[in-house]
Amino acid sequence: MKKRILVGLVAVSSVAALLTGCTGTSGDAAGGADAKPYGDCEVSGKKGEFTLQTLEEGKLTVKADLPSRGWYNGDTVDSIKDGVDYCILANIAYRSGIDEIDLQNSSFDGLIAGKAGDMDLTLNQITITDERAEIFDFSEPYFSSTAGVVVKKGADLDADSLRDAKIGVKQGTTEQIFVESTLKPSQQVSVFPGDPELDAAVAAGQIDAAVQDLSVALGSATASNGAIEVIGQYDSGQSMGVLLPKGSPNTAVVSEIIEQMKQDGTIDELSSKYLSVAYGVDPTEIPLWSIE
């Protein structure tokens, strides 16, 4: 099965765990004539065509689990200037006539639990589920995904033996639900607070495999310098959307902007520009495993 990878890869691994409590604003911190309101992102469409009701006038407040290779590129919040999600944010802001993005770090688990604090929205490769839709609003999907299987380089695992392996997942992800409810391995599933901890456990041999969103898995493998690799993927039938507070007046508008960016090719272009370089592999060549 070949998915729309260029408009369907999703969630990527964090490359550092040093960002708790940090906040950042797009452009140069000191402002001035050389400041870039949208970092290094190219924006398109008509500026101010849409209107968003934001927490602070002229500012888009965003929370995300940062950084995220290919999606939010950088080592700290302040250094993030591009990536797929960041540049989608830039285009949402631009098309809404907003010149400032206030990017703040939050744990993924805190985000999906509704404990991240006030924000206008987040793009963080978040899968749309019925349970999450009960407490949040979601835009129209902007990416679809599969679940990738990550192992230590050279590990002797395949689709048949995975169920008897010791599997790890990131807490609060749909991959945790997928593994526990659908894959149903014979050993107890190990749950980790973040991608760095999960990836480290794979590399150290503490677990036999990790199941992550495919793009997260590919990002993890790339960042590991060959220590871990992606050996398979499952079609989880999932899609990602922009997450907004429940009852947000901006949900329909953001959906309209996302649909416009899909139609005018912006999201495809961002995917091609940032994800292919970030992963260095064609995701369609990774074996698709089935659950029997």
Annotation keywords:
2 domains; 292 residues; D-Maltodextrin-Binding Protein, domain 2; 27% helix; alpha/beta; six-stranded mixed sheet; 8 helices
Question: Would you kindly provide a brief summary of this structure?
Answer:
The protein has 8 helices and 11 strands. It has 292 residues and is of the alpha/beta class.
* Total number of domains: 2
CATH topology of the largest domain: D-Maltodextrin-Binding Protein, domain 2
- Rg, please? 18 Å
Q: Which parts are unreliable, with pLDDT below 50 for 5 consecutive residues or more?
A: 1-24, 26-34
What is the rounded distance between the termini? Answer: 16 Å
Please identify which CATH superfamily of the largest domain we are dealing with: Periplasmic binding protein-like II
- Strands of the widest sheet, in order across it, are 7-6-8-5-9-11
Strand content: 15-25%
Query: So how many helices?
Result: 8
H/E element order:
EEHEHHEEEHEHEHEEHHE
